[in-house]
Amino acid sequence: MSGQSTPNLYNDSSLLLRARKSDRDLVGYDIKEDKKPVYEVIEMGEVAKWDPNAKQNKRKWSLLQHKPYLALILCMLIFLGFIVNTRFQRKIPTRHQLFFNGTTYFDTTVILLSLDGFRNDYLDRKVTPNIENIGKRGISAEYMNPSFPSITFPNHWTLVTGLYPEAHGIVANEFYDPALGQYFIHKNESISSDPKWWKGEPIWITSKKQGKKSAVIMWPGSNVKIDSLSPDYYQPYAREITAQDKMDTVLNWLDLPMDERPQSISVYIPQIDQKGHGGGPNGGQLNSVLTDMDNAIGYLLKGLKQRNLDSHVHVVVVSDHGMAPSDPSRYIFYDKILSDESQSYLRPREAWPLLGLRPRDDAPEHIIDQIYHELQTYTETHDDVHFTFYRREEMPSRFHYNATERIAPIVIIPDVGYAIIRSTDKKAPKGIHGYDNLAPEMRAIFAATGPKISEHYGKGTRLSPFFNTELYAFLTTLLDLVPAPNNATLNGILK
């Protein structure tokens, strides 16, 4: 069956509703000292109507003489407003209060921390008490499902845009775009920093467009200008910077004067993923890294408490995906499955550990059918097959992975723990992710605390599992922002 495609939200201009400046001005601060009205009264003067066929016939029209027409116009505006609100389901944020920590005022502030590669069941190891405490003070999910494929760059852009990879365009860490005639390579900044690859609106740009300052540390895609905008504060990727260094940067931002202080702060922390790849999820040194990262979060929480902000600032901790162990016995050599002729027409591989197969432009028209037939023959003649394969248009709809040609024409998905490589490739790492996003080994974490969370959920609330496409709308709810178009289904309130 052909998968059900997700509409490209950014090609539909009717969905690009944005809050006008006048709308945003109506979202004021509830400060007692400020008695100024948030609107101005417009006084209508008299308008003279000139009749060229009358002699000296000057008649003044007052506003009252237009009451029937004004009433009709008012009714039409109310009706149109209802239609727009129903059609787009976009709500203007409610009024909110500034928080006072005893020294200065703080606007609603959210600190988003992403621990790359933190598998959900790592919490069961009981070496991350600070992350557990965030859930006890606020909310935590049984687990959070990543989007497919469960790879770093696609999922980090999903977390901050609320869009499936097929909608935001970052469908893998490496892929080819036939419309552009170019490859996206995530580690090549001269390529990956080009805005043409990135669709959607990340939370730091949504914040900036609506008058809130934003700050980002090393988040994938944060070096890219979206709508010609960048975050107000930005720290580029640097492997040597520790997690605690990043927490110091966050606390320094919070110490800035109010008119300079960011309200949306996003922080990327890669060490757990790096160690998981090197030694696998059961490697001897992984617990030590988990402890180090948790200590850095504890350092941040202590810094917030010292500033009397522990009950005023929202802290949200997530991960992008989990991790599965692998070894050479689980390698699948696709050059032993496909014919030499088929391989001779292929472009370089796309995605990892799944495999995207795309013929070159000079390949014969039948080559995709030929490759598909060769894979089919292999699976029918071998008992121990550890992969599934699809034509792009036949991908199961639950993957949301067929609505763009950036996805290769044939996609091979290995079973969890397996890697599809050439027999001449170097060994795969001991820990791998990128599999079916519903696999237990790919589950991510979610925990959050803060004043709005306590008000809505109470303390220690355990949430049912949800997909990471919900996070962006949740963040906009915390920050009193109007979200850009996204694929969330829960309207910013996690269930």
Automatic annotation (TrEMBL):
Protein's GO biological process: nucleoside triphosphate metabolic process
UniProt keyword list: Membrane, Transmembrane, Transmembrane helix
SUPFAM superfamilies for the chain: Alkaline phosphatase-like (SSF53649)
Annotated InterPro entries: Alkaline_phosphatase_core_sf (IPR017850), Phosphodiest/P_Trfase (IPR002591)
GO molecular function: nucleoside triphosphate diphosphatase activity; ribonucleoside triphosphate phosphatase activity
Range of residues in the leader sequence: none
Transmembrane regions: 69-88
Keyword flag Transmembrane: yes
Protein name: Uncharacterized protein
